[in-house]
Specification:
single chain; about 90 residues; alpha+beta; 2 domains; three-stranded antiparallel sheet; 1 helix
Length: about 90
């Protein structure tokens, strides 16, 4: 039985069509060697968080009223069918 250990992890990116090594991580010694040659778009690092932009979405009053009426018709239909099933449950 052969045991193979991966001792190095290499971090690479593709830049201008070529692989560029940014750094190595040695698992055995827990050592990260970073080469500091990364280039960020626009020359600055991206933010390390998600930007949440609150945005209020509204619908028209006509659409709201139409959906409420449709939901009301559905609820009334369900109540009527439940009453029908309760009244005639003995007939199969």
């Amino acid at each position: 039985m052969r045991v193979i250990l991966i001792l190095y992890i290499m971090t690479c990116v593709i830049s201008d069509g070529n692989y560029v090594t940014l750094g190595y991580y040695d698992i055995a010694s827990d050592n990260l060697t970073w080469r500091h040659i990364e280039r960020w778009p626009g020359g600055k690092k991206p933010q390390d968080r998600t930007i949440v932009v609150p945005l209020l979405r509204t619908i028209s009053h006509a659409l709201f009223i139409a959906m409420c009426l449709l939901a009301s018709v559905g609820i009334i239909a369900c109540i009527l069918l439940l009453g029908f099933n309760c009244k005639y449950h003995h007939r199969r």
